Amino acid sequence: MIIVLAASALIGLLRPGLGASHHAHRTRAAASLLALPASPPPALKIGPPAQLSSGRYLSRWTIVRRPTVALAEPRPNATVVAALATRAPEGTPNALTVLRAKTGEDGALWIEVRLPVLPNGSVGWVRRRSLGAYQTVDTRLIVDREALRATLYRNSRVIFTAPVAVGTASWPTPSGEFTIRSELTRYASPFYGPVAFGTTARSAVLTDWPDGGFVGIHGTNEPQLVPGHASHGCIRLRNSDILRLAELLPVGTPLTIR
Going by C-beta distance under 8 Å and a sequence separation of 6 or more, which residues neighbour residue 19? Predict the structure, then answer.
């Protein structure tokens, strides 16, 4: 009993000392914190959320990654609209404008694309897995057959304009919405000028031409015919103008012929 009382008395004596020491340590630590300089402002300041641009002038395009078919609806048993190869007739990747995406009843992702087939203006649905990565452009080329002029826009701003020659009444340049799908150089014949652009537009009257009568945009060795109606449907520019256009016109650009 004496030992227990002695131990209790000793603990009682030590406890106030321990409490006082801990209190003093906390006081010194608080004083040290108050003496520290204020923290610098953060390097990254996150502001309120801002609404993103609508992308009004952006267009998406892609290439055919493996041979496939385009269907009338986004479902496996829909009517086939067109067969799509990985290469265009000129040997370049088969570029297509992307219109929209939709998940089909089969759970697969389907993409609606503008097709390089007759009748011009045809669209179809392709499985996403058959297509390549998306690319975007902010350009649009307008060819006015009445004014005989080509105009290139970037966003809403005109960055190029030049006179053109288009098809005759017998072999008209088709109207509609198309895609610039290739850029070609090093032609052996000066007839096409130094640069040509392949498009997805097709002649509705020259269907027996090689590769189906696709409409090109190219230079010419007869600049006196520009502007005018002088071709079998292709769009001709003077060589100096097609060279300027080649510096500004990316593959994938939407083409409107009106």
Answer: none
Q: Look at domain 59-136 and name its CATH class.
A: mainly beta
Count of alpha carbons within 13 Å of 169, Cβ hemisphere only? 0
Q: What is the pLDDT of residues 241-254, one digit of tens each?
A: 999 999 999 999 99
Q: Is the pTM of this model over 0.70?
A: yes
- CATH architecture assignment, domain 139-257: Beta Barrel (2.40)
Catalytically annotated residue among 23, 25, 218, 229: 218
Q: pLDDT tens digits, residue range 127-166?
A: 999 999 999 999 999 999 999 999 999 998 999 999 999 9
| Rg over CA atoms, the chain | 35
Q: Where do the domains of the chain lie? A: 59-136, 139-257
Q: Which strand ranges, in their side-by-side order, compose the sheet holding 59-63? A: 80-84, 68-71, 123-127, 109-114, 95-103, 59-63, 135-137
CB 145 within 8 A of CB 200: no
- Has 234 been annotated as catalytic? yes
Annotated active-site residue in 23, 25, 229, 234: 234
